[in-house]
Specification:
This protein has a single domain, classed as NAD(P)-binding Rossmann-like Domain (Rossmann fold). Helix content is 41%, strand content 11%. The longest helix has 29 residues. The radius of gyration is 18 Å and the shape is globular.
């Protein structure tokens, strides 16, 4: 039976990835900090104030969705800022299943500094973001890669962000974001290509999945005060694309590259009831120039003219 491991699976994109992978036939190990509903921990994006009000979602609730699809859900709590907890989670999963066929690096740092400008951000908060959003992936990969390579096939999917290769159009607090987020996403963005070069010939497939703007539970609860509106796509768009990558031989040709998830979902009719990406939810909003983003704009126009 194929197996998968998803970080940040208590809500949002990670929850949807776990459910869609289960629907595609995978047993799924799900990891995050929030195990039971209603847990309180710091999730304010700014150093200016604290917010420990519970966020919607938990691993227990995601596990129920996985099991409703007829697959096994294995809950392994971990904190992306804690290397020991990551190692323990990976070792526990491997002890149970022996290998993991698909790893989805979706979780990221949640906390102060995310929406603060540089002069307001303690350097240790930028370091936390770099660790949680990039180094944590490498810790898990060092556990899961050897069994994949021994098996002759495996897939690593990194949920990336256009913020990692484009500038915000406004400062943090006015619709943009703090420096630690794009720095860490830029670092993580390089992982897939390097691993493809190092291990592609051994059957490893690696991907950056760029989600665009997604309407998650935390986005709805926390981000309005920072200039973000709920104008994005549903998390199921990313879940559907991740499941397609995990199961489609056609996706082999994209290994080592960045997959623009909203376009792929729309073009391949992975969610027939979803009308497709809106212009202001694509990577285009994150930069002001550049040939790559001009090509995205042309593709977007073609989509809406069709």
């Amino acid at each position: 039976m194929p197996t998968a491991f998803v970080t940040g699976a208590s809500r949002g994109i990670g929850k949807s990835c776990a459910q869609f992978l289960a629907r595609a036939g995978f047993d799924v190990a799900i990891s995050a900090r929030t195990v039971t509903p209603g847990e309180a921990r710091e999730h304010s994006s700014t150093v200016a104030r604290s917010d420990t009000t519970p966020l919607p979602g938990s691993l227990e609730e995601t596990a129920a969705l996985v099991e409703a699809e007829g697959r096994e859900a294995f809950v392994v709590a971990a904190d992306l800022t804690d290397a020991a907890s990551l190692g323990a989670a990976a070792a526990t999963v491997l002890a149970r299943w022996g290998r993991v066929d698909v790893v989805v690096h979706n979780g990221r740092y949640i906390g102060p500094g995310h929406m603060d400008r540089l002069l307001d951000t303690p350097i240790e908060l930028i370091e936390k973001q770099l660790f949680a959003n990039a180094v944590a992936q490498l810790i898990l990969d060092q556990y899961f890669l050897p069994p994949m390579l021994a098996n002759g096939r495996g897939t690593i999917i990194n949920i990336t962000s256009a913020a990692g290769y484009g500038d915000p159009t406004a400062p943090a607090g006015e619709g943009g974001w703090g420096l630690g987020y794009p720095m860490s996403k830029a670092a993580a963005h390089r992982i897939a290509g390097v691993l493809a070069v190092e291990h592609g010939h051994q059957g490893l497939r690696t991907y950056n999945v760029q989600p665009g703007f997604i309407n998650t539970e935390r986005m709805a609860q926390d981000m309005g005060e920072f200039g973000f509106e709920l104008i994005g796509a549903p998390p199921d768009v990313i879940g559907a694309v991740v499941a397609w990558i995990a199961t489609s031989d056609e996706a082999d040709a994209l290994s080592g590259s960045t997959v623009e998830a909203q376009f792929v979902c729309h073009e391949r009719h992975l969610l027939p009831d979803w009308p497709g990406p809106r212009p202001n939810t694509s990577a285009l909003r994150y930069d002001k120039s550049g040939a790559i983003l001009e090509a995205m704009e042309e593709q977007l126009r073609a989509t809406y003219d069709a």
